[in-house]
Amino acid sequence: DQQEKMLALKKGQNLCRFTGSYCSMEIPIIGVCLQTTESYCCFNSRLARIINTSGGAQIGKPVSDCTGFTPTEFASLDFSRIDLTEFTNEIMANVRMPSATTINTDSTATMQRKLTNYHTRGHQ
C-alpha cells in the first residue's frame, strides 16, 4: 500500500530508525503469532534522525519514542556526544571543491585584469 511505499522510500534515504517489532496478528486461543510487524520512527532529515536518536538516548527516552524534544530537553543535550559523521560525510559527498589549477587560473586572470585596469585607467 501507499504507506509501505513511503516507508520504503524513507528507509532507503536513511531517514528512519527501527524501533522494534510486535505481533500484529495472533490466534488468541493458542497464542500463535501469524504476522509480525516492524515499527520505525521516520524523520524529515538525516540530521533530525541522528539528533533524535542520540539525544533521546542521552536523556533516557525509549527508542520507540518518536516525539521531538521539549525546549528544556533540547537545551540539556550534549551535542559533543552526538556523532555527526554520517551527516558530515553526506555533506562532503555533495560538495565540489575547485581544483588547485582552477584556483590558480582564476587568481592569475583576476590579477592580470586588475593590472590592466590600473595601467589603462590609473586605478584598480
What does this 3D model show about the protein?
- The protein is built from five helices and two strands; from the N terminus they run H-E-E-H-H-H-H.
- The chain has a two-stranded antiparallel ribbon.
- Helix content is 50%, strand content 19%.
- The mean pLDDT is 86.
- The protein starts with a helix and ends with a helix.
- The chain has 124 residues and is of the alpha+beta class.
Q: How are the elements arranged and paired?
A:
Layout: H1 2-12, E1 16-27, E2 32-42, H2 46-59, H3 71-76, H4 85-93, H5 100-121
Antiparallel strand pairs: 1-2
Fill in the keyword field for this structure:
124 residues; alpha+beta; two-stranded antiparallel ribbon; 5 helices; 50% helix
First and last CA, distance: 66 Å
Low-confidence stretches: none
Radius of gyration: 26 Å
Helicity level: 40-55%
- Specify the structural class: alpha+beta
- What is the string of helix and strand elements? HEEHHHH
Largest sheet: 2 strands, antiparallel
Number of DSSP helical runs? 5
Number of strands: 2
- Arithmetic mean pLDDT: 86
Taking strands numbered 1, 2, ... along the chain, how are they ordered across the largest sheet? 1-2
Estimated share of beta-strand residues:
15-25%
Rough outline: elongated
